[in-house]
Recover the amino acids of this structure.
């Protein structure tokens, strides 16, 4: 039998390949690759002692930390899965993930988010073992790991096609779903992006993006991990602190949003710190003169098309010559078709749904058989629910989403989730969500609400009700009360609501008259 490499195997071999290179840095803590690999064995033994085995699940309710990476590789060593949940969620949303994912072990953080996590624990029905990762007590994460054997874990065969990383995506239909990403998915993505970014054993990546987004892993925690470089972790993104880390650790890449990038540039005008090793990454055009004069190919051609379910961006502008399509070309491990409403391939130049297959397509959503059946076509093609077009030069144009979505800063907000929350209030008979233009955040959420007869509820009360149950950025900023919500063929007429209540600024939605599961 030919063994298929897993992320655990990569870690084990990097300990031999690069014995003097730091695998992780977190504040004053540093683990060279051999020490990191030994620490992974301790964590794997700790998990195994709690009964964690192949196919079991671990939930991370915390911000960014080196402990997540060692837990992830320990899970890989056992054949288990790990999910970094959105720590910005409300307690009710966390409780949903706890119950839906049904983990054997939950590793959580008290600092800053402890009150929310504790409330979620009270709400959820769970029999998991809870371990606090930022505790100094004897039952805290570090103490438990230090007291555990570092002997290599002996387990059965772990397949490269086993799920490892699970990321909950936004509620496109009615509730979030955990996208199941395999070792093969993650290693294929990492190998592809290491070619694009030029990552090697000298690369240093700052994990400044949220762990519950695929972007931090693609740009470029896992490419750097694969190539034996260094992953630096920072719990919170504060411009002054990040700037100091960029200089002190000689960081080569970081996952940063444009506002933070601009703040760092302004700070460094007076600080004058050397961050010349930093290359552009996904936001290269924003850095400008803060970059070295010879940026990489990725810096020259940033961007592409992707989603969590296809392990980031399998279509990239970095492949081939610049072309007509705004998303670029499929990676060497990806096939792309454009299909019509009946899922038949259309001719080049025609608009349809982007469907993808290849080594980066996930296994589906955890515990969502009906949705998986609707989204997978025969032959392993994944329906992205996004519209596109293949141009005559072979590039792909992304034209918009087939689902209605509100975009607030970097966050995707799907109306059904907020509508379901609102209609849970006893005074709300019906609700519809639209997006209204916002100069700072692209869009703000506006709710159109029909009260139950004989009841009374204010805009502020509904806002507070949502804030307790869903992430704060999803709550309505504005509420309009109406006698009825207009419909077309029995469905909410969102176009009429946009016209009446000032909706607009959507990131782009295309109608090809296709039902989406």
């Amino acid at each position: 039998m030919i063994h298929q490499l897993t992320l655990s195997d990569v870690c084990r071999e990097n300990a031999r390949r690069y014995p003097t290179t730091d695998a992780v840095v977190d504040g004053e803590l540093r683990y060279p690759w051999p020490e990191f690999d030994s620490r992974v064995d301790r964590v794997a033994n700790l998990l195994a002692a709690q009964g964690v085995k192949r196919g079991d699940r671990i939930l991370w309710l915390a911000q960014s930390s080196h402990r997540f990476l060692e837990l992830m590789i320990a899970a890989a060593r056992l054949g288990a899965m790990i999910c970094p949940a959105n720590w910005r969620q409300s307690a009710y949303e966390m409780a949903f993930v706890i119950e839906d994912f049904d983990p054997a072990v939950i590793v959580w953080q008290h600092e800053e988010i402890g009150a929310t996590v504790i409330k979620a624990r009270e709400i959820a029905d769970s029999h998991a073992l809870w371990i606090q990762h930022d505790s100094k007590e004897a039952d805290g994460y570090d103490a438990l790991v230090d007291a555990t054997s570092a002997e290599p874990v002996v387990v059965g065969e772990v397949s490269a096609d086993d799920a490892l990383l699970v990321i909950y995506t936004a509620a496109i239909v009615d509730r979030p779903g955990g996208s199941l990403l395999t070792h093969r998915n993650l290693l294929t993505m990492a190998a592809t992006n290491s070619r694009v970014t030029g990552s090697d054993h000298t690369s240093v990546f700052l994990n400044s993006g949220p762990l519950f987004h695929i972007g931090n892993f693609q740009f470029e925690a896992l490419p750097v991990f694969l190539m034996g470089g260094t992953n630096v972790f920072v719990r919170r993104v504060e411009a002054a602190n990040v700037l100091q880390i960029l200089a002190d650790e000689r960081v080569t890449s970081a996952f940063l949003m444009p506002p933070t990038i601009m703040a760092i540039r302004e700070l460094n005008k007076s600080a004058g710190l050397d961050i010349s090793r930093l290359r552009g990454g996904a936001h290269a055009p924003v850095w400008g003169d803060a970059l070295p004069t010879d940026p990489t190919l990725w810096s020259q051609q940033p961007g592409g098309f992707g989603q969590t379910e296809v392990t980031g961006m399998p279509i990239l502008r970095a492949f081939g010559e610049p072309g007509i399509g705004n998303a670029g070309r499929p990676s060497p491990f990806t096939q792309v078709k454009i299909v019509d409403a009946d899922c038949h391939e259309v001719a080049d130049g025609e608009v349809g749904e982007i469907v993808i297959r290849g080594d980066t397509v996930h296994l589906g959503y955890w515990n969502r058989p009906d949705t998986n059946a609707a989204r997978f076509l025969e032959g392993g093609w994944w329906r992205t629910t996004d519209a596109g077009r293949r141009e005559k030069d072979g590039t792909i144009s992304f034209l918009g989403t087939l689902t209605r979505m509100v975009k607030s800063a970097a966050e995707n907000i799907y109306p059904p989730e907020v509508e379901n929350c609102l209609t849970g209030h006893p005074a709300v008979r019906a609700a519809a969500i639209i997006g209204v233009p916002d100069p700072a955040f692209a869009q703000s959420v506006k709710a159109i609400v029909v009260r139950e007869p004989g009841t009374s509820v204010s805009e502020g009360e509904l806002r507070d009700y949502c804030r307790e149950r869903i992430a704060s950025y999803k709550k309505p900023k504005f509420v309009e009360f109406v006698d009825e919500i207009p419909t077309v063929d029995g469905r909410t007429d969102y176009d009429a609501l946009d016209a009446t209540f000032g909706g607009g600024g959507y990131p782009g939605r295309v109608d090809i008259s296709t039902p989406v599961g």
